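Supplementary notes for students who missed Thursday's class. We covered one full example, reproduced here. Read the sequence, then the structure, then the short commentary at the end.
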Amino acid sequence: MRLVASVLTGALVGLLYQHFVGCHTGACPITSNPFVSTLYGALLGFLLGQL
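Structure (token representation):
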């Protein structure tokens, strides 16, 4: 249950980061696309949830 919560939290943080801080010119491969930044956030949440 804790792992699922950390993945969902990471995905939300990735999406919010892309929305408020992300690269809007399209030059940044991670933060220009909300789908990719959400996946990266979920991955980081998964990795941090393993601790």
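Commentary. Helices lie at 2-20, 34-49. The radius of gyration is 11 Å. If anything here is unclear, bring it to office hours.
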